[in-house]
Amino acid sequence: MSNDTNVDDPPEDAPSASEESEQDTRSQEREQEQTERQGARPSLEEDGRRGDVDDTETADDPVDGVNPATEVDESAPETDDGVETVNDLGSEVDVDPGVEIDEENAEDHLLGGLQIDSTDDIEVPDRLVDQVIGQDEARDIIIKAAKQRRHVMMIGSPGTGKSMLAKAMSQLLPQEDLQDVLVYHNPDDGNEPKVRTVPAGKGEQIIDAHKEEARKRNQMRSILMWIIIAIVIGYAILAANILLGILAAGIIWLIFRYTSRGTDAMVPNMIVDNGDKRTAPFEDATGAHAGALLGDVRHDPFQSGGMETPSHDRVEPGSIHKANKGVLFVDEINTLDIRTQQKLMTAIQEGEFSITGQSERSSGAMVQTEPVPCDFVMIAAGNLDAMENMHPALRNRIKGYGYEVYMEDTIEDTPEMRRKYARFVAQEVERDGRLPHFTDEAVEEIILEAKRRSGRKNHLTLHFRSLGGLVRVAGDIARAEDREYTTRDDVLQAKDRSRSIEQQLADDYIERRKDYELQVNEGGVEGRVNGLAVMGEDSGIMLPVMAEIAPAQGGGQVIATGKLQEMAEESVQNVSAIIKKFSDVDLSEKDIHIQFVQAGQQGVDGDSASITVATAVISALEDIPVDQSVAMTGSLSVRGDVLPVGGVTHKIEAAAKAGCSKVIIPKANEQDVMIEDEYEEMIEIIPCANISEVLDVALMGEPKKDSLVDRLKSITTNAFEQNQGTVGSASGSNPSPQ
Predict the structure, then answer these.
(1) Buried b or exposed e, range 335-357, using 16+ CB within 10 angstroms
(2) Domain definitions of the chain by residue range
(3) Do strands 377-382 and 151-155 pair parallel, antiparallel, or not at all (unpaired)?
(4) Which fold does the domain 135-200+273-407 belong to in CATH?
(5) Which helix (H) or strand (E) holds 479?
(6) Which residue among 608, 610, 619, 635 is the active-site one?
(7) Strand duo 630-632 + 590-596: pairing
(8) Residues 6 or more apart whose Cβ sits within 8 Å of residue 125
(9) CA-to-CA distance for 267 and 258, rounded, in angstroms?
């Protein structure tokens, strides 16, 4: 492959020296004109064209509606190796002059002390890397990786900023000499087109020169053709044989028409054009098929007779070629075919990759170009399951020559972070371009929702995509009313309108069960407990659990249906150790039947129903009724400890909607409760540390209940006291939603 950077040096079998000489003369004249025009301009920003950009200057193109800065603040502090640190980027929230930040009361102020009337007072950073919030470690890695041109793999939940960081990296990459890539016809072998790289902007000049040369040749051939045709027809008229003259003229026209295609084939095909780019390219190849990612050669239905398209004109670049000297971003990397991942790994390793037809039945499969440059920085992303189906060699290549980073779901709630969340709202308004700015009260409501969605006390969610959706819905409501600002009432309406599908289904289930009296929220029933579950990420629902004890027909077993079998068996095994200690009942002689009432086709996932199943089984064994005004959630250890679970806020709200007056949650989750104000008066929240406390609240019938609870307390209290430190530390973790 020829990898020349001087347009004076053509590849082998390229256009003739005289053609290149004329082309170079025109190129020099154009460069001189550009230099003179640029010298008369005061700055590069005023020039809409690429011009000559100095390698040390950072000039960024707009990305997704954001207008990045065209120059870097030279006063920004740097580390010893010249790499900016996290503390240097976006650490402060700039506001309009005259707007103060109350540092003394910042801790108790929802906006972190920002004294603003609306988000219009907040300045939005120009560079994307400065707009990233909460992912400090990931941002620091992106900065270092951009400086050293390292690959990065980011793993985390959707909507936590992976794609935004990838775009930011393309703005941070060191200034490189961008290149245009041309594909030439190979006269020796038409199925192996030649590849040539030239400095960005030169490719268009070369093609223009070739087109002009081809136009002149065709013009001369056309003049010659009509002269010959005129002579033939004139001779035919003199010979009184006009029909033969017309036939001869047609044959001459076809001959010239057929041979002229060879002249057009000499015009190269520019597959990568970076002439108008001023920063490193960014290519999002998420979900791309093999041809779009690796390049392809179009099928040619006309393969002979002079009607065929030259092979070099059918070459299509892939994302790996367009990302040359820039960033290739692939989200959900595990969805790529294994063979595609292998080829991608080869491209990363070699820095060049030939383009060939991806369909073996296409005529393009016979064509294979010389290697095409693809020296890109790879950013792979995905959820936790992405690592399972990812090619191990590809992951090893990224890890060996780059970084792996996990994206956080929540971040500690501090005044500084609240100020950044206020700036996030301003960023979303500016990025959309059609939304009214938010008042300070509206921003406070957004921050409260961020606290609530985190699922942890004193934390804020980092799922900004869904939070941004709330901002846009609220702004749309205000815009529909033609208001100047988006208010708190608009945000409250948006919270109801932007409910997830799971939340809408959960609310519908609750209403339907009330209509058919399937939901019991008063009185006492043996073996029936109101359990709580989460649908999706933000939707609570109440699922009653029923247990029945029957004599075993053979060996004792746990009988449940469908997907509930494994979870139900584990829950009963956990409680069986406690039952054996306080009861003389031999579970091997009993069949335990368990049903999750109308759990749906998806069943129940996780172990947050452990105390629900345990309570139902113990109630059925002892014939003690369960208070139906109580709902509960929690995991259970074999020693009777109630362990923390996720989604407690949404579960509590679901219990309140269902009409329950009490809800039992793990004591370790007490700090995670962030329910809406409307539910606080509707339901009493009772934290419990062990199974005896749960039964004390849930069971009815004083004599039998008191005896059972006393026996359980003697068994579980000591175990709980020994493991209290362990349970307490677990509360500080971030349990997954169950």
Answers:
(1) ebeeebbebbbbbbeeebbbbbb
(2) 135-200+273-407, 202-268, 409-498, 519-720
(3) parallel
(4) Rossmann fold (3.40.50)
(5) helix 464-480
(6) 608
(7) unpaired
(8) 90, 94, 131
(9) 16
CATH of domain 519-720: 3.30.230.10
Tell me the backbone φ, ψ of residue 542, rounded to 5 degrees. Answer: -100, 125
Q: What percent of the chain has pLDDT over 70?
A: 75
Q: Evaluate whether 609 touches 533 at the Cβ level (below 8 Å).
A: yes
Q: Would you state the structure tokens that stand for residue 577, as one six-digit string?
A: 């150790």
Q: Rounded CA gap, 632 and 615, in Å?
A: 10
What 3-state DSSP class applies to 175?
coil
Give the span between the Cα atoms of 320 and 327, in whole angstroms.
9
Task: Considering the domain delimited by 409-498, tell me its CATH architecture.
Answer: Orthogonal Bundle (1.10)
Enumerate residue ranges in the chain where pLDDT < 70.
Answer: 1-99, 175, 257-265, 302-307, 510, 513-520, 536-538, 561-569, 572, 581-584, 598-607, 715-738
Q: How far apart are CA 21 and CA 25, in angstroms?
A: 6
- Please answer whether residues 355 and 368 qualify as being in contact, where contact means their C-beta atoms are separated by less than 8 angstroms: yes
Helix (H, G, I), strand (E, B) or coil at 296: strand
Phi-psi region of 417 (alpha: psi -120 to 50; beta: other; left: phi over 0): alpha
Burial (0-12, 13-18, 19+ Cβ within 10 Å), 172: buried
Q: Are strands 410-412 and 194-199 parallel, antiparallel or unpaired?
A: unpaired
Q: Which of 167, 651, 705, 713 is catalytic?
A: 651
Q: Read out DSSP for 319-356?
A: HHHHTTTSEEEESSGGGS-HHHHHHHHHHHHHSEE--B
Active site residue 651: yes
Q: Which two tokens stand for residue 518?
A: 């399937």
Closest CA to 499 of 449, 442, 439, 436: 449
Q: What is the pLDDT of residue 599?
A: 61
* CA–CA separation, 659 and 653 (whole Å): 10
Amino acid identity of residue 87, one-letter, is: N
Asked about 729 being catalytic, the answer comes back as no
Q: Cα–chain-centroid distance for residue 343?
A: 23
Rounded Cα distance, 632 and 269, in Å: 68
pLDDT at residue 80, as a whole number: 42
Q: What is the pTM of this model?
A: 0.70
